[in-house]
Design goal:
The chain is an alpha/beta fold. The protein has three domains: 149 residues, no CATH class; 69 residues; 145 residues, no CATH class. It is built from 17 helices and five strands.
Length: 381
């Protein structure tokens, strides 16, 4: 015997895991369902016969290759001086807990006749490898070998990931509402429109529904609305102020249009010239500004009131919103005057500085008050 062989035998004899059990795992029991083989299959010859029978029944099944790989691993260990045995264990077709329990029982049964002190797991994918922690409860796992068939590994992995997301979309209500509900509505409306002969008109409706759904999901409008309409005092306050604010903001548009001089509108015949006329734009903003600011103030006041009722410590930011809204009004109003009366842009500086001063003073007072309250709470605790 060569010196190298003597060194290998010496290393094997000193190893803590010199009696190894090579385990080929078939979690979904293809070897039993397709080839009719009862597991556990113990020994080299028995495993070769099982792999051949499975390959004849289903040449495309990867489990037969896993069994052959386990046999090769067993022969390599024997050639290196290990005491080894090769087995094939299987679960059940439905997988799950019953499959893992069956694999565990079959492994225990083999260990009664071959008391190994280490295991080498051979499998053909991640699903079979999920049983590794189960086997580790009764036998140390020193190696895991995955059998990858050429050109199929990426396909198998992609199929597993794709199937996982398809299941999530189909059964998780968090995702199915959008990914199944919206297309379902569109298909239903499109089918009805085709039957009644309004295909052209319904296209605009379908595009509008799809666009609205994308906007709602993109900006989390559905979550904000569900939070807003909760049957609580805060929810009712938010609903009232939000509806009132939106109506006021919308009503500011006709108010701005009414504020524009009709003679100016009659003199401008094209839309582009109307939009580019700074006097018309200034009059429109001047007329819409009061109602627009009241609408925004109603929304901000509703946030402040609902948070105050609910005891949510966000009053500082809510109050500052209203302060900033009030402080900005003179600046925006003066901006409309510069457009209508062709005043100098420097006339915007005084209201801008005044609004900035009011905002800074208000923020300083509110933060000092907040810190004082926090200090008092810490002292009382």
């Amino acid at each position: 015997m060569s010196q190298n062989s003597n060194r290998v035998e010496k290393d094997v004899s000193q190893s803590t895991s010199n009696k190894l059990l090579v385990i080929c795992i078939d979690r979904d029991n293809d070897v039993g369902e397709k080839a009719g083989i009862v597991t556990p299959v113990i020994g080299r010859d028995a495993c070769i016969e099982a792999a051949q029978r499975l390959a004849l029944e289903d040449p495309e099944d990867a489990d037969s290759n896993s069994i052959f790989a386990a046999i090769k691993t067993y022969e390599d260990l024997i050639s290196k001086g290990y005491q080894a045995e090769v087995i094939t264990v299987a679960g059940v077709k439905r997988k799950g807990v019953q499959a893992d329990e069956k694999i565990l029982e079959e492994t225990k049964k083999v260990l009664e006749n071959f008391p190994a002190n280490g295991a080498v797991i051979v499998s053909d994918g991640e699903d079979d490898e999920s049983v590794v922690p189960v086997i580790q409860n009764i036998l140390p796992v020193i190696s895991v070998q995955r059998v990858v068939m050429k050109v199929s590994r990426s396909v198998e992995y992609s199929y597993a990931v794709f199937g996982k997301y398809l299941k999530m979309i189909a059964y998780d209500s968090k995702y199915s509402k959008f990914f199944l509900g919206v297309p379902g509505i569109l298909l239903l409306i499109g089918g009805i429109a085709t039957v009644v002969g309004y295909t052209t008109e319904i296209t605009a409706v379908l595009v509008s529904i799809l666009g609205g759904s994308l906007l709602i999901r993109a900006f989390d409008i559905d979550k904000a609305w569900s939070h807003m309409v909760k049957p609580t005092p805060m929810g009712f306050v938010r609903i009232f102020t939000m509806v009132a604010g939106v109506l006021l903001i919308l009503s500011s548009i006709p108010a701005g249009i009414n504020a524009v001089d009709e003679k100016l509108l009659e003199s401008e015949t094209e839309i582009l010239s109307v939009v580019s006329n700074k006097v018309i734009i200034g009059q429109f903003i001047s007329g819409a500004l009061p109602i627009l600011w009241i609408g925004l103030g109603a929304i901000f006041a509703g946030m402040l009131l609902s948070n105050w009722i609910g005891g949510i410590p966000r009053q500082i930011s809510d109050v500052l919103r209203i302060v900033v809204l009030i402080a900005l009004y003179p600046t925006v109003f003066q901006f409309t005057n510069t457009m209508i009366n062709d005043e100098s842009s420097f006339s915007l500086v005084p209201p801008l500085l005044g609004g900035l001063a009011i905002t800074l003073i208000s923020a300083t007072i509110l933060f000092k008050k907040y810190r004082k309250q926090k200090d008092q709470e810490m002292v009382s605790d």
